[in-house]
Structure formats: structure tokens, C-alpha cells
Amino acid sequence: MSTNLQPDRTQGDDQTVPPPPMLPAEPTRWARFKEQASFRNVSGLYIIAIMIAVFWYHEPHTFMTMLSWKLLLDQQAIAAIIAVTVCVPLSAGVIDLAVGTEVGLGTVVVAWLIADKSLSVPLAFALTLVAGAFVGVVITMLVTKARINSFIATLAMSSILLAVISWISGEPIPVAVNGFSTIANGELFGLVYPVYYAAGVSLFIWYALEHTSFGRRVYATGANPEAARLAGIRTSRVILGATITCGVLTGFAGIITASQLSTGDPTISSGFLLPAFAAAFLGSTQFKRGRFNVPGTLVAVALLAIGVEGLQLWGAPVWTPNMFDGVVLLLAVGFAQLQRSPTKRTAAIRRVLRSLRPRDRRAEA
Amino acid sequence: MAEGVASRGTPAGHGDVPGGGSALLRVSDISKTFAGSKALDGVSFDVRGGEVLAVVGQNGSGKSTLVKVLADVHQADPGGHFDVRDPDGEGYVRGDRRDQLHFIHQDLGLIAQLSTTENLDLSRPLGWRDLMPARGRSEHARAQELVARAGARFDVRLPVALLSPAERTIVALARAMNGWRHPNGVLVLDEPTASFHSSESARLFAALRQVAAAGAGVLFISHRLDEIRAIADRVIVLRDGRVVLECPVADADDATLIRAIVGADLDRTTEAASTFGDVRLKATAIQGIRLRGVDLTIAAGEIVGISGVLGSGREELVPMLFGAQRRIAGAVEIDGTPIPSGDVGAAIEAGVGYVPADRSRQGALGQLNVRENLTLAGLKSVQRRLGLIPRRRERAETMRWARAIDLRPMQPERPLAQLSGGNQQKVVLARWLRTDPHVLLLDEPTAGVDVGAKVSIYSLIRDAARRGTAVAVCSSDTAELAELCDRVIVLDAGRAVCELRGSDLTEEAILEASLESTHVSSGART
Hints:
The complex is a heterodimer. Chain A has helices at about 1-15, 30-35, 40-60, 65-90, 100-115, 120-145, 150-170, 180-185, 195-210, 215-225, 225-230, 235-260, 275-285, 295-315, 320-340, 345-365; strands spanning about 175, 185-190, 190, 265. By secondary structure, chain A is mostly helical. The longest helix of chain A has 27 residues, at about 235-260. Chain B has a six-stranded mixed sheet with strand order 5-6-7-3-8-9, with helices on both faces. Chain B has a six-stranded mixed sheet with strand order 15-16-17-12-18-19, sandwiched between helices. The longest helix of chain B is centred in the C-terminal third of the chain and has 19 residues, at about 505-525. Among the domains of chain B are: about 25-110 and about 180-260, Rossmann fold (3-Layer(aba) Sandwich), CATH 3.40.50.300; about 280-365 and about 435-525, Rossmann fold (3-Layer(aba) Sandwich), CATH 3.40.50. The radius of gyration of chain B is 26 Å and the shape is globular. Chain B starts with about 20 loop residues before the first strand and ends with a helix. By secondary structure, chain B is an alpha/beta fold. The interface between A and B is large, with 46 and 70 residues.
């Protein structure tokens, strides 16, 4: 009787769970390489190569010079730090819309502590990082204890931080202390320090996310918090770790910004959020198929920066950089989406193509 | 016993019935074949105006396939067909058939945040008039009238989330009848009372009676005999896709119905009673929303099944033993260590593994790959200093388990979501087997799993038991419990009403216990 019963159940299931496509059991090394080097996996690298070729051909004297590359690196270091940092909360499933204002807070707090409170640079530095960590703790409380959707919690948080920033100072705070400006403006081997900071932060986050159990827990929490909890992961602790990491590192980015300008500018917050999110989301389409990851994010930062730089050297109108950012993001993410989940329509198209093929062969024969 | 009434003759002379109306829904000789096996085999019946026809049968008897064929989800095999008629015997064409034949599934398809009025309005086709401001008062009055037609009265302005389950079903009922040209349509209700408390059912039944009295035909799918007695005029029993019994409800006693549902064939070979080790899991007086004090002990090496119809509290027990859900009262001890309610960490620490029923929501992490899913529980065993996970070691460990569970395709770096349901389930199971659990709690371990994976899941479970794991299997598949378990407890109305073991443990016995107890306990209540 039991055997008689099974067909109905299993067949019913077959309706909902399609059988897996037949695949070779173990891919060869070449197949794996082809997969990894495929356009859909690393489209960013190919696009960068094409852009460099085009801009080089078109603007050989300005684009392909050491100076312009050095400037590019210097300019993008802080953007890279923020973009890589925001990958951590995003991977844990926390959409942190407050990153921009967290950077702004760091900028103003460090300047205020040094200029107004006359603290020493190292102490001000440390306290600013603590302030960043505190913001992370508050966000975690809102998300895990008060159970507010992270999108809303961090949106509100960002508004509150803006208020705190202008409460501390309505106007730029000049910092004229010896040594403070070297944090961002000192050079080593021809590159400013922030480039090395960005490399260090990227390396740290890459290692933490991909090679430690902390990273594994972060990705698990972001992928399916309920399943992660039932597998014994304390998801609220993981989220706490992620938001604190984000708070500290954005605070650090804020300090660098303040040092770069020797000023705590309360109005700069707004410019950081969108590029960081654009790079993180664009980066999630690279290497890892929809997972936020550091190498992909760095490629995305480079892609957007090179594109904008090249277009500016080309003499494109002022609106092109913004247009470029938006279009590239949409194309890359849309393309990845298309590749990942074949919709009914693309599946239908493939079926039609497959049905055409044998007929072609017969025609040839 | 009226066995073998499989196919009724051509439906020519069925116009006059004691119930009154003529056939509104006529199903003739419908079969449905899946991959060579017949889920439905020549099913024929009529639903007449003014009557409630109950369809009963156990899991896999073809009830749900029948509903899906009627709803045009599945296409019936050539030769069979069904049609919907008006009381004068005129057949409806396809489009109108949609309007006159309406389904109420367990998931009612209501939008919880919207009020009854708004939910009823959703079924109206959109037009330019919808850009005009909604005429609140008249709309509410119309909704109230529709609800009243089902014999109910409640505030139609409240969000439906605030209504009781029965009231929500009545809203769905009202919405179904909203589109009818006249009151002689056909309603198909697929186990509508599964989430009800028993007192609630009466309200729905009153509503259904009223709808039927107005001339509609009702097809009521259920597995509870007491409900069938309360509501239906006639009953059809499905078994293995065939109609094995069709008669007025009053003519069939419970014994006859159960025999028809279960079938009288098959005897289970008795196995020698095995001996088990020490008690590993001890649960006392577990209480939840439905559970009203259930005790359970499982010894090392024992596989204990948990059965019961939907709503018996069966689906609550395993999550509460693990701590995935908080229990209202009761104690759980693992190897003598008490586990606080709702503390997943403590349970895992004590050596408990848990495979949840809802794989996609609670078990599988679809975006992560097989390796990451596999090592997720007990990450500590693969990590080194500072939480580093040596990639090579983790890969080796994963390959070992992938071979043990016969992963297909053998690609541990594939995202889990790209695997079939059966392989996903094997990975989720292996996640816990890897931790060498003392107690393994399995909730619907083979739901949505193909036959091949089912066999390997069973052997994995048996192997674990042989190594001394205490296993609890909660399942709605009675065949599975009979095959896999050493002992099965049957729950009803939140209590364990029956325990089967040894030669008593057969699929029929489990089913009989759950069906009969349902009847008896509700008989005691009324």
C-alpha cells in the first residue's frame, strides 16, 4: 500500500520542484577556469579593459599617464574604504543607509575633539572610533531588539546623525594641529597613505568574510536569518559584530576625510552613501554571483572611477558621470539577474531554440 | 460494505435526488496519470444543487489531484471530463465555468491588512471608475449583505487579520459567491477547517448550510469523520485514485468509512523487538497553542514517530522540543540536562539536531553553497585559531559527507538553491549528522523529496539510530512512519491518544487511531 501511495505525493512535488539539470559530476580544471573567467562572472574586468583601451586610444596623452592614475587612486581610496565596509552589514542582511552620515559624524567628531576640546590626536582618533562603534550598537538594538526593519531604522538613524552633526557644529571646524593632516596627506612610494589604508581595510574585510567563521556566520545570517538561528547561530550577535565593524571603519573613513581637508566639514555626509551602495551592489555581481564581496566591490569602485575619469578627460558634459554610474549599475545588476534566474520567457526562448536545432541538422543532412 | 462502486454509469438519470436539485458539477471518468502511475483512476460523481458532498481519503489518495484537475492546474487524461451546469441542465462554456466553480483553499488568498469590504472589492475587474473616490458606505453595505448571505455578521471594516479563522473563511466564501450570476454555483473547499478550533467549525458549517440552501453545490474535502457527519449529505471515499465508496452519510457508520479509507489489505511483518539504550530525550507535559500536555521519552537508538491529523498539535511538538518555538509549559531534558524553552543554543550544545519542516524558510540557505550549508552547524569543529576556517580541510570534510549522502550532482560549491529538493534535504540532514547528535528531531523529513532521495534519507536516519542517536520523526505520511519507526505516538486535540509499536504498528493502525480518536474526542465534547 505504501508504494501505491507514493506516486501522487511525489508527482505533486515534481510539479513544484523541477528536477536539477543534468550536469557533469566533477568539472575539469579548464571548465572551472572558463566558468570563473566567463563574462557573467567577471563582467567588470572586461568592461574595465574595454574602457581603458578606448580611452587610451582616444586620449593617449592625458588618460594613460602615471599622474592621472595616481590621482585616481588617491581620490578613490576613501570611496573604496566605505564601499568595502558597507559590504559587511549588507552581507549580514542589514541595509545600512546611515553609512554616509556615519562618515560625516567621524569627520566632525574628530575635528571637534581636537580643535574645540583640545584633545591629543591619538585620543581624539580613538574616541571617534568608539563613537562609530556606538552608532553600530544603536543600529543593532533597533534592528534586533526593537525589530525595526533595517532599511527604516538606518534611514531614521541617518537623519538623527545629521542632527547630531549640526548640533556639534553648524559650520566647518578648522583643525590646525601639527601632524593631523599627515594622516591623509602623507605619502609613501608616491602614493598617499589612504591608498594603503584602503588596501589594509579591504584585506581585513576580505579575510574576515571569506576565511573565518565570523564571515560564514555573517553570510548565513544575511542569506536566511531563521535557518541560521536554527542552525545555532546567534544572529543578533552576528549583526552586532557587523554593525560595529561598519561603525568603526566608517568613523575611520571620516577621520581620513577630516585630515585630508584639515577641516571637520558638517556638510559632506550626503556624498558618500550612493557611490558606496552602487559599488557594493555592482560588486555583488562579480566573482560571487549575488553575494557581497570585497574583490568585486573593489572592481566596481575601479570601474566607476575609470569610466567617470575617462569621460571627463574626453570632455563629456557634466551630467555624464551621474548618468554613467546609474546606467552601469542597472546594466550590471540586471544582467546578473537575467543570468541567475531564467524567467519563464527566457526559458521559453531556449526551448524554442532547442526545438529548432535538430531540424537544422536534418536540413544539413 | 459498499466497496467497488468505482464508476457510476452514464449520468443520465440523476436529476431527481432526495437532496433536491439537479447536478451542477458533473465529473465523469476523470483519470490523471503521472509518469506511468495513476493518481486518479476513472473518478465520476455529481455535485447537486443544495447538497454538500464530502470527499475523504488519506494522503496520496488523490484528493488534492482531484482539486487540481477541477481547478485546471492539472490537465486530466484524455477521455475524462467535467462540466458545470446551471440548474436547468445547460452547460457553461469555459469562461463562465470559471465564475460558477470556485475554490477555497486552506490558504484563503485574502490580504490580511485589508478589510472585508476591500478584500471583496479585489475580485471586481478594474476599470476607469476605480479612479473615482471609493463610495465607502454603499460598498460596506454591499459587503455586509454578501457576508449576511453566508449567515454571518461581523464588522466588515475590520482588517481580516483581526477576524477569527472561521470568519476569514466566510469572507473567502462571500468573495467566491460575489461573481456568480445566480446562487447555483459550485464551491470546492479543500480542508478548510485545518486551522480551526473545533468550536469555530460550527460557524463555517452554518454558513455552508445557508449557501447550500440557496441552491449552491458544495464539494467539501476533509479527512475528519466528525466534520463529515456534521456537514455533508453524501460522502465519497477515495483510495489510490479510485472512488471506493459513495453513499449518503447517514448510511455509513464510522467503521465502514475507515475500512474504505484505509483498505483492508496488507499485513506488516513483525520485527523482533529491539532493545534500546538509555533515555536520551525526556519531555514532560509539553504545552503549546494546541498541545495540552504531551509526554515523550526517546531512548538511544530508538526511532519514534509522531502522527496526528492537521490541527492535532503534531506540527507544534518537534519545534518545541528543539526550542525553535517557545513552549507555554513543560520540560525537556536531553541526557538529563534541562533545556530552557526557546533556547536553540542550549539544545544544540546538549547534542540536539533539528531538521525543520519548512525547508526553504528554516532549513536551507539557498544562496550559500553546499559546503557552507553543511558545516554551518558545528562550525567550531572546522575552525582554527581566531576563527579561521582552513579551506582545504573544510573541502575534504565536505567531500566526505557529500559521498556519504550521495549528493547529486557531486558539486559542493554549487549554491544549495540550485539542487533538487531531495538533495537539499539530504544536505540539511547531513548538517546535523556531522555533529554526531545525541538526539535528532526531524519534522517532515521527506516533504517535497523524490523517491530516490527518500530511500537514502531513510537509510541515513537508520544509520544514525544504529550509532545510538535518539530520533523523533514527525510526519504526515503514515506510510513513512510505519516503515521507519520503532514506535509511533498519535496526537489528537493536543494530547497523545495512542501509542503503537511492534506488530500493532501499521499504516492502517496509525490512520485508524488518528481518525477514530478525532471522532471520539469530538463526540465527547459535544
